[in-house]
C-alpha cells in the first residue's frame, strides 16, 4: 500500500471537510484535491466515511504526540495541570480534533449521529474520574477533593474553551498558550497539595491514559458497515 498516497488522500480530505463539510464533499472531490483518480482513493478506503474515521485517528495520534513532546520538554510537565494545559493547546491547535470534540455539525454533518455518542461518553467520563483518583493516590491532587467534581470541572473548562468561538471570534481571543498557562496556574493553586507531588509519576500516569485514549480512537475509527456508494 502506498502510504505517501494514503496520506495525500487524508490531507486532501481534511482540507475539504474543514472548508466545505463532510456532507458536501464527495470521493470525487477528495480524489481531485489529492491529484489522483477516484479508484485510487478506493484502493485505500472503502468509503468516504472510512476516510473520516482514518483522519480522526491520525489527528488524534498527532495531538497525543504533540502533548508528549511538550511534557518531555517541561520539567514540571507531569503535574496534572500542565498535562491539562498541553492537552487544551493540542486540541485547540488541531482544527479537525477541535471540531470533533466540539461536535461541529458544519464539519461532520450527518456523521455526527454516529460519532457524537462516542465523544466524552460514559466510558470516557469514567476514565477521567479514575485518572483524577490515580493522581490523588500519587500525591498530585489534594486527596480530600471529590474526584468526580474535579473531573467535571476540567471537562467544563476543556469544552468551554473548544466551543468559545461561538461566542468570541477567534481573532478576538487571546493566544491559546496564554490561556492554557493561566488555567494551569489556577488549577495548580486550587487543587494541588502542598509541595505539588512528583511530576515524573504524573508523566507515567499520563502515558497510561494516552494509550487508553488512542485505543478508544482506534475503536471509534473502525469502519461502520458501508452505507455509501461513492458519494
What does this protein structure show overall?
Helix content is 69%, strand content 0%. By secondary structure, the protein is mainly α. It folds into two domains: 45 residues, Arc Repressor Mutant, subunit A, CATH 1.10.10; 162 residues, Tetracycline Repressor, domain 2, CATH 1.10.357. The chain is elongated, with a radius of gyration of 19 Å. The C terminus is likely disordered.
Which SSEs are present, and which pair or pack?
Layout: H1 3-20, H2 27-34, H3 38-44, H4 48-73, H5 80-93, H6 95-101, H7 105-108, H8 112-115, H9 122-137, H10 147-162, H11 176-191, H12 199-221
* CATH class identity of the largest domain: Mainly Alpha
Mean pLDDT: 84
State the helix count. 12
* Overall 3D shape: elongated
CATH topology of the largest domain: Tetracycline Repressor, domain 2
- Topology, number of strands: 0
Helix percentage: 55-70%
Kindly report how far apart the N and C termini lie. 23 Å
Low-confidence stretches: 223-230
Biggest β-sheet strands, sense, barrel = none
Share of β-strand residues: under 5%
**Count of discrete structural domains:** 2
The assigned structural class equals mainly alpha
- The succession of helices and strands, N to C, reads HHHHHHHHHHHH
What is the CATH architecture descriptor of the largest domain? Orthogonal Bundle
Amino acid at each position: 500500500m502506498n502510504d505517501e498516497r494514503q496520506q495525500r488522500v487524508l490531507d486532501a480530505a481534511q482540507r475539504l471537510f474543514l472548508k466545505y463539510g463532510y456532507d458536501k464533499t464527495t470521493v470525487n472531490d477528495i480524489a481531485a484535491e489529492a491529484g489522483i483518480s477516484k479508484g485510487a482513493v478506493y484502493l485505500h478506503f472503502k468509503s468516504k466515511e472510512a476516510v473520516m474515521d482514518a483522519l480522526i485517528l491520525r489527528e488524534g495520534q498527532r495531538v497525543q504526540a504533540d502533548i508528549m513532546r511538550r511534557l518531555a520538554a517541561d520539567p514540571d510537565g507531569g503535574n496534572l495541570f500542565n498535562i491539562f494545559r498541553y492537552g487544551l493547546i493540542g486540541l485547540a491547535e488541531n482544527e479537525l480534533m477541535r471540531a470533533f470534540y466540539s461536535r461541529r455539525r458544519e464539519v461532520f454533518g450527518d456523521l455526527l449521529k454516529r460519532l457524537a455518542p462516542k465523544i466524552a461518553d460514559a466510558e470516557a467520563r469514567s476514565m477521567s474520574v479514575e485518572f483524577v483518583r490515580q493522581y490523588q493516590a500519587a500525591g498530585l491532587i489534594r486527596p480530600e477533593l471529590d474526584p468526580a467534581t474535579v473531573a467535571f470541572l476540567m471537562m467544563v473548562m476543556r469544552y468551554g474553551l473548544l466551543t468559545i468561538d461561538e461566542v468570541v471570534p477567534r481573532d478576538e481571543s487571546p493566544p491559546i498558550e496564554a490561556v492554557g498557562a493561566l488555567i494551569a496556574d489556577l488549577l495548580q493553586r486550587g487543587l494541588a497539595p502542598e509541595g505539588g507531588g512528583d511530576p515524573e509519576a504524573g508523566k507515567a500516569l499520563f502515558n497510561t491514559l494516552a494509550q487508553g485514549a488512542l485505543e478508544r480512537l482506534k475503536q471509534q475509527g473502525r469502519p461502520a458497515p458501508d452505507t455509501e456508494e461513492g458519494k
